[in-house]
Amino acid sequence: MSQEPLRVAAALVVGADNRIFFQKRSAQRKLFPNSWDVVGGHLEPGETVAEALAREIHEETGWHLAEVLATVGDYRYTGEDGFERWETDFLVRVDGDLARPQLEVGKHTEFRWLADDELDVLDESAHINDGMIRQLAEDGFAVLHGLGT
């Protein structure tokens, strides 16, 4: 009997200048170590995708979800741990000090706000995540531009 995929909610946080926030996972992380990533994580038991999205934003950055602008898409992948995941990604705006995210100690080591012409840095970890984050970033910017913001 196959197991249901693990559900993941993720946020592409959009800043005032329409740059998107990325953070680097620590080298100690089991899944995608030392890789650029967006904000997000697994749903907890009984939690909705919307609840997980708001919780993960706050846990990983200290910010508060202000607005969901759009859904970027659904992505399915199998992690290095062998578990299939079903991730839904959203473009969001947040409240808080965008210049000083409170990165989770031990989980993330640095952050960057990137414009759509600055995504080459995400290729540093393409060998770890099969280019998934670069593709997600490109999809996110395509949706953002489609909103006319």
From TrEMBL:
Gene3D superfamilies: Nucleoside Triphosphate Pyrophosphohydrolase (3.90.79.10). Its cofactor is Mg(2+). It holds the Pfam family NUDIX. Residues 5-137 form the Nudix hydrolase domain. The keyword Glycosyltransferase does not apply. InterPro entries: Nudix_hydrolase, NUDIX_hydrolase-like_dom_sf, NUDIX_hydrolase_CS, NUDIX_hydrolase_dom. The keyword Isomerase does not apply. Keywords: Hydrolase, Magnesium. PANTHER family: GDP-MANNOSE MANNOSYL HYDROLASE. Belongs to the Nudix hydrolase family. This is Nudix hydrolase domain-containing protein. It comes from Winogradskya humida.
